[in-house]
Amino acid sequence: MTPRLQHESVIHPRSVECLVAGRPTSDGAGVKLTRVLSQNLQRRLDPFLMLDAFGSDNPDDYIAGFPDHPHRGFETVTYMIAGRMLHRDSGGHEGLLENGGVQWMTAGRGLIHSEIPQQQDGVMEGFQLWLNLPGKDKLCAPWYRDFAAAELPSFTTEAGVAVTVIAGHSHGVAGAVQRETTVPLYLDLSLPAGSRFAQALPADHNAFLYLYRGALQVDGRSVPMQRMVIMANDVGRDGVLIEATVDTRALLIAGRPLGEPIAQYGPFVMNTEQEIYQALADYREGRLG
After folding, report:
1. Is 63 left (phi over 0), alpha (psi -120 to 50) or beta?
2. pTM, full prediction
3. Stretch (H or E) spanning 218
4. For residue range 41-84, what is the model confidence (pLDDT) as tens digits?
């Protein structure tokens, strides 16, 4: 069924605060990736903790994957553009994430999981976003869901912009996942050259774009490929307006900040150091997951 679209009017679009280039790094068993949203930006982009972009046509860069490792206190959202990823966790969940699919995992009080690439035509490309949980939910029961590409709500605007709505709402279309406290918006945008896209946003929500193909104009500023655009929290601005200068792919991500303390030690994200010590103890003593 074709979704019934609602026109989103952005009269006073947000300005660009800054552009951020990701930092090449490796994680897991040596998977090469680009850390776009790193720990020094967690408070500025609250409730988001991390965004990694990974992509290579060289299997040596990714084939060892991410063997068993723990998580507590946040959610992971893995979005595959190309390739496949096999997931297993201590909660008994298992799934094969394929082209265009999304895996949403709420670690809550604790899971131990693995993410192992399954080679397909030699190419692996995608993103992993970490979304913080409010303190009241950090020890909730773990939750997991795989969404195949065909299950993700999508629509195309009159300007020809194809939009996949992973989370939140856009133009009257509800995404695959909703969260009451952080209210995340997660869109994958495919913009033809010369097209424009508007997304209304509450003024108090933090927002950023990540451009992974092509080139954009945002509030009159040129944005090259592989840059994150942090959108300013301007008073009186009602959303984001972007224009593609060539055929372009970009992620638009926004959410309501929690405004809570962040205590992180690797794969554990809590509110206090004492809670981190407890997470470490639970992991060492086999109580995690």
Report:
1. alpha
2. 0.95
3. strand 216-218
4. 999 999 999 999 988 776 666 666 677 788 999 999 999 998 88
